[in-house]
């Protein structure tokens, strides 16, 4: 519950306030004072009458009614203080900085529970405990430094780690990135990252609110809510980037199925971010660089012009953009000749446009104008302007400032001379701009942004899927575990997924009759043993009745054999689809080409059920082996539409059969005309 | 030619010196003065008696004998000044800053030639023209800023772009990276990047010289020399990292063979760097980070301990290291329990070791000591210590300083609070340390370094290769272009590469007789048409004489058919080897699995001929599909030793048959026992 008293309190009391600014209780009061909090400030400290010039009370019982309380007192004193403030002082927001709660001991966890009970009873907000606090344009209720420049159009940072939030602000500061708010949720006893996002979504005011959200998370407690509100915010025009740290952990978990081994917990995160449209970052440096890009107008295309007065950085930036699938197109035509006339002799104009080291602000002006107005195939402009120290850059950066204000295409300033032109860069940032001091870091961030898809929405594609039948089948399955082949067949049929015709029997004559009907060649597989191939329980390409009869007899003598299954022998490219239920995330669906592509090359892409057709196509297209699906070097491709259809329908099946914990269809055999499931396994747990 | 007068002149004259430090002729004199040049400084300017306090002469003819001349005068005045100085003033080193030479006009190129003639005649050095100059511990002959901190153990920077050198120094400065020298070679009329490296190699003094070289190049003019001296320096204990910018350009060049299309000019660079043992970087940020890592003791293994007082950065660093194939092993055992006792309650010790936000310098001391002395499975330590601003970090960083001085394992300081603890970080850097302010950038740089192989040397493996035979065959080939099958066979035989038995004839009876001898099934291929498959000129799996006779007749009627080739039909895993001659680099050899692996997945690795066995194995191991070569999921692997042998022998063949411009063996068929070339094409140009 996020109350208005938390966001914009009329009064704040710091409980445990101190004159010593090297203690959290002193530092936070200093930050509140220096942050020009407009409301009333109060302090509580039994030993003082006044703390840092603020009226001080001996105990919370003595304080007048106060909207927000910040607690910097030992953990064991917090429950009572919260109780008194909430019940007697109308306090409806609490920020508890103190550590020593559930993160440390069982007793601490009990204290936390007590506090939560109280704040919930009174409909109050609780940030923390064990956090650095909350910083916004109204109040600086954090005990840490640095305090970034604040701006209602700056970024909202929500972090599950306080120290990381601090270090992210350090990294943002040198880039000129401004903040609207910074939330450190600490133990997140009441308010977690998802709650803050939900609040921002539900209360989004497109005229007033910041459109940039940066997240740092070490675990995703409520993926559904994260997905819902992140997508919704992005649909409303916001842009979100996030670090989910801890991607390398685990991987060692037991997994009984094929898909189980392929799907790491990180593929669930990957799939969630893709579905939500969140740009995934892996470092503070990347997150703040992406944040800086977000402050500029949105890119409408992938074609960049580079304007510079130094060759090298332009070349390195071109490399980085091309590596990320973006373009630095060659410029051509009469307008280019016109531009050349207006620059210094020797200036290079093919793109990068190099106005030379002796190029003036006017040359910058002209080059940017041409890129904005004359070159239709340019979507955005990078301006790389450092200095070897001969002249100051004030005029150049003032020109850049003017161009950024008026250019209708996004214009990225790359100012590498942060030391030599330190003062000039500072002045430029003070005008509200950001700076990308390393061109390749910018290029990489842009690729990440441009390659993140739009939010996919959460609509379930029902066409072709018989949901009541799915439920009937699932409900009729007697045991947990891998389910019998006829259940698998029935579920795939109900989901509208084509399955190879097959027949299971322990009776030789029946089997032969089926094979005659479906026509040879056929495949025979033993029913019973789990690892069929290993015991010689699979025979391909059986061309006649006599051979089938012999194989039937042999297979029925294998240990655990109960029957033999016969299928027509299909040909085609092997495809693979799998799914795994990830706690809290739901089903992660994987697709790829079969065989070595999955097993050796791990060439799979992942999505989170339910999947839209757009997502399914995007998954297929992001396979490294996509060219094989398209058809390559004389080889025909496979029916991509059918493949996408099966991915979508499988994801719908999973949405209505959450009892399915793991499944794979491997292989599907695909031709230009059809994609047919040949073998599938499903494990359920009710 | 690099003279001692260039490296450490006794006297320097700035020609075109100016009192205006906003001009190169003023700025360079200021830098020389501020850099405390110990020798005699002189200036030339017809309008002044003294420039910035330095005695000034009206013309170069008036100057006393001077070792080094820096020219900052118009291009057209340079040749005469150089002539006078070299012939009359014993000047044996020139740095020409001026532009307006070959990079701009033909007339400029002629001026450059004239100057080169003069300096060569007198055995003098020439840096430039069109450069920022040369900076070392003896003299600061650059006109640019910043001037980095100088230290004989700092890095040597050699750059083909002056502005990029300046921006690299900007990026180095904030990290505390110190320099021994910075060379801007400009137009490199006499001295290029390779020459500087050669000089450093041939004059290497292990007691005195810096062991770290950073390079920035946009083209590699003399790959052989770069390879030779870079490898040699690395063998002598140096460490080299380089940016080769322009990796994305081209790719559109015409290529007639399979390998031609696979081998981009960048694979030649990649192969060269791998052979030399150079760490390849792609940005200034990366290059300077790698440079900082190089200042620390060399890593002996891949296992890292992370000591920190903040959780998040430790997790992100762990992710980055694991992604790069490095480890953050779990710590265990009684010594770990002992360590836990000595830290604060709640400290986490599994690795990362989190001494908590309230951890003291003593805790840092203890944790590092345990990692250094007690945990055998730790090769290096990362210390991440920022601050939320409550207390200063002077004591903490003093402790870190002491630990770095005495720790026998490499200890990497990660100090993120560059703003809030700005003074503390500055003091720490002033003690000669570097700082990695972003932990993930460090992790990525470490992976790059650890994954760069050792220099491979340039030894040619002759065993099994009949060099005289190769020369005889090459010399006997009458025409340029794709050579006839029997020449291909003969060359592969001479190189000791097993080739499938084959027989070519236009006579049906002979063909049938061969097939009978070698035993069916066989493969028949038409000889004559270039694209055999496209015209129906390849038939596999011919099982009997009658079938072969029919195919023979059909093929001989195809357009351009001159004969039919018959081979026994082999089975096995398809492998691929190709090579392409790259101007100046020599032969780039590619290997991989055949078919879709090469064509669709571009899963190839490259090396520069001649290749050692170590390199060949390293190429094979770096394939994504290596598991297939090893054998996977019940499928047998292939004979890796034979594959490596063929790669090595092919590279030897190429070394002695540089007339071969393109070739590929595709496929080779590989089993557990043998690897046999089935089809090969070779194009020569004499």
Would you mind describing this structure in some detail?
2 copies of one chain form a homodimer. A 7-stranded mixed β-sheet of chain A has the order 3-4-2-1-5-6-7, with helices on both faces. A 7-stranded mixed β-sheet of chain A has the order 9-8-11-10-12-13-14, with helices on both faces. In chain A, strands 19, 24, 25, 26, 29, 30 and 31 form a 7-stranded antiparallel β-sheet that branches. The longest helix of chain A has 17 residues, at 640-656. Chain A contains 24 helices and 31 strands. Chain A starts with a helix and ends with a strand. The first copy, chain A, folds into 5 domains: 4-132, 3-Layer(aba) Sandwich (Rossmann fold); 146-294, Succinyl-CoA synthetase domains (Rossmann fold); 304-433, Succinyl-CoA synthetase domains (Rossmann fold), CATH 3.40.50.261; 501-569, ATP-grasp fold, A domain (Dna Ligase, domain 1, 2-Layer Sandwich); 573-684, D-amino Acid Aminotransferase, Chain A, domain 1, CATH 3.30.470. The first copy, chain A, is an alpha/beta fold and 686 residues long. Mean pLDDT of chain A is 93; it is low at 250-258. Chains A and B meet through helix 5, helix 10, helix 11 and helix 16 of A and helix 5, helix 10, helix 11 and helix 16 of B.
Largest interface: pair, residues per side:
A-B, 79 and 80 residues
Largest sheet of chain A: 7 strands, mixed
CATH architecture of the largest domain in chain A: 3-Layer(aba) Sandwich
First and last CA, distance of chain A: 34 Å
Mean pLDDT of chain A: 93
Q: Give me the Rg of chain A, rounded.
A: 31 Å
Domain CoA-binding (chains A, B): 6-101
Protein name (chains A, B): Acetyl-CoA synthetase
GO molecular function, one term (chains A, B): ATP binding
Pfam families (chains A, B): ATP-grasp_5 (PF13549), CoA_binding_2 (PF13380), Succ_CoA_lig (PF13607)
